[in-house]
Amino acid sequence: MTDASVSPIRSTTPTPTTPTPPAIKLRRPTGEDGATIWQLARDSGKLDLNSPYAYMMMSHFFPDTCVVAEIDGEPVGSVVGFAPPARPNALFVWQVTTTERVRGQGLASRMIEHLLWNAPLKGQARWLEATVTPSNEPSARLFKGIARRHGVACEVAPLFEEDSFPCPTQTDATFEPEHLFRIGPLRQAKAA
Asked: Which intervals of the chain are annotated as region Disordered (predicted)?
């Protein structure tokens, strides 16, 4: 038997591997990202769509309390928020969106946590606040889940009732009440 006639024991079939999920980069938005954040909100099909100008203003004036998530330069999520002037130790989350590509992978929580523990609150946030409509069960689960992970209360109370919004005949839209979710008090993060 020659070496050439011996069949190799190794298989030539490649061993299957689990693909490595693409890295998600979180970054502060710039004023130019307002249009991108508006498009993410529009394409979600789930959010109240505000004017592009509102998203441009938030990106420009509140970049420290907003975040854009990207995979290989492609926007896949965003959080728009601010620190209320009367409660500078709170982060108010106005809108959260993720694309279908990353939905259900915990990106929304990751973006909110990034804002809580990084700039500008740098771990000093004691409260996380947001408003959620009664029909928005995914958002309610998101915020209640954050409260559970931190071992703190998630108080829910009426904030804007249905009759507080413009009459449907004036806006060609109907509005649900908005309930305030107030999570905390959060423990201060340790210095990184």
From this structure: 1-31
CATH architecture of 24-184: 3-Layer(aba) Sandwich (3.40)
Domain ranges of the chain: 24-184
Q: Cβ neighbours of residue 169 under 8 Å, at least 6 residues apart?
A: none
- State the pLDDT confidence band at 47, using cuts at 50, 70 and 90: confident
DSSP string computed for 79-125: EEEE--TT-TTEEEEEEEEE-TTTTTSSHHHHHHHHHHHSTTTTT--
pTM as predicted: 0.82
**pLDDT at residue 22 greater than cutoff 90:** no
